[in-house]
Amino acid sequence: xxxxxxxFAKEHRMEIIRIGIVGLASILFWMQILPxxxxxxxxxxxxxxxxxxxxxxxxxxxxxxxxxxISIAVIIGILGQEYLAAAIVLMIILIAEYIASVNTETTRAxxxxxxxxxxxxxxxxxxxxxxxxxxxxVRIGDLTLARTGERILVDGxxxxxxxxxxQAPITGENTPQEKNEDDTVxxxxxxxxxxxxxxxxxxxxxxVFARIIKLVEDAEQNQAPIEKLxxxxxxxxxxxxxxFVIGVYLYTRDVKMVIAVLIFTSPAELxxxxxxxxxxxxxxxxxxxxxxxxxxxxxxxxxxxxxxxxKTGTLTSGIPSVHSVISYDKKYTExxxxxxxxxADRRSSHPIAxxxxxxxxxxxxxVAEPTQFIVVHGRGVRATxxxxxxxxxxxxxxxxxxxxxxxxxxxxxxxIAVDNSLIGAITISDTIRPEAKKxxxxxxxxxxxxxxxxxxxxxxSAQTVAQAIGISxxxxxxxxxxxxxxxxxxxxxxxxxxxxxxxxxDAPALAQANIGLAIGASGTQAAMDVADIVLVDDNLLKxxxxxxxxxxxxxxxxxxxxxxxxxxxxxxxxLVLSHIIGPVEAAAIHLVPDxxxxxxxxxxxxxxxx
Length: 610
Ligand code: ADP
Ligand code: MG
Hints:
Number of strands: 20
Oligomer: single chain
Strand content: 15-25%
Distance between the termini: 29 Å
Helix content: 40-55%
CATH superfamily of the domain at 290-316 and 432-549: HAD superfamily/HAD-like
Bound molecules: adenosine-5'-diphosphate, magnesium ion
CATH topology of the domain at 290-316 and 432-549: Rossmann fold
């Protein structure tokens, strides 16, 4: 239905008129009703827009497109006195171009659908007054309301009320979620029942939703390598093609054959074969809660054979829990140990730091504000609390600071020192994400051969986690730089490496890897910024989904190039040269790959991908 709307949209009226006039003129001329000059006028009218596009592309983009080929074919037809053939070829090509442009528009439209229509204003409460403001003018801290049936337009926290929310537009997750006070809600999600007051926590342009829209819109710009390759091939091919066509003419002196050859040698689908797949693939992933920052990454992810995982916050859940607090020094109670640790870690975004601070708050321990604060990535923090130097971090961090640790470690353990003497420790229980093992299995069945886990945590907890989820190679006690080096080494062995991480300390490694995947909701902004792919919710199974979608997209590109461009064109040229078909049949056959390539690409939006 929608397709029909596009087909007869106002913008296309001119194209339809052109097709009609050229078609009608051909028929009337063939029935010997129309005089010859009138046919020429009709052809001129039809070919005018093609020549215009051809010349503009040639001058501005130095690009030789289908339009040029067809214009030349038509002109050759007229010079060679094959008027009727020229007119019919022209008509069919005009139809093909028309279908192509309508198809591109419908793809864009289905992406729009997917994202949904977005309201431009919302109600906010400022100074106890209700005002309607433009969505770009919403400020952090504003209060807004979302009622049943409405789309939430901001990222924020529920401060009053209860609602059931459909998060599918953002996470692809279809089960509705119950949201109460203090829960986070995302722009783009829909209230299916209830009503909530929301306090805005992010500027509109920073919301996940805004990012999704932007990504899909930008997807065309980040060209896939194969796309650059096809552009390059096209530019080499064209001079060869022209020589070939001239050769055919000199040898056969057959104008009709030259026209037919020109139709099959035009690079039309070469230009369409990949961009459409890219848009569809990125849109499809976005629909499932996977943000892919460009077509380029679809192809790269499809080729990845090695996955490297960070541990804390990535394979284990973003919120680990405190197992025990121990005091080694009689001068300090366990509560005081916890108070120092929490105060020092107060400004850190590390998941372990957040856990310690939350635990202290929950234990009603008062958490002081540190006066100085330095993060040592992969190790811990150094802070000044109430005039004392406090060190919080792992065993390596302590030995590097000349505070040797003799205690046996059997799980993630954070040590605390005050003024250079060890006062206690906090043990942390890692909770492995429930889907981690399954995610690895799925990746393995999809053809990924090598898995590694790299962590800054100790050997013992690294081993526990890696073995529990089925990764046989791991490295513990790594600094962020060492994670990069490890990835570089893998790449030198010829591996295509994807790295999955959540923290600031993972950001350099995410950038180094061929593909960086960041954990979205509980991860850090730094990781999301450098990553090529962001998993909007923290579900690790989405990694396998991303891999599947990218493989499918890459396959579609190859199908398009092979069938659409290769087979049809090669067979076409052979048929022409062996006098089996003439220019009119050639133009008709030419429609087939046009439509096939387009349908094959758009299919990506809907088809089931295992
Ligand atoms: P992973 O590589 O597994 O994500 P990190 O490199 O982030 O782990 O951290 C490695 C180790 O360093 C942690 O297990 C912890 O012992 C220690 N650590 C890092 N940052 C902090 C912090 N802010 N507070 C306490 N300990 C920390
Ligand atoms: Mg981490």
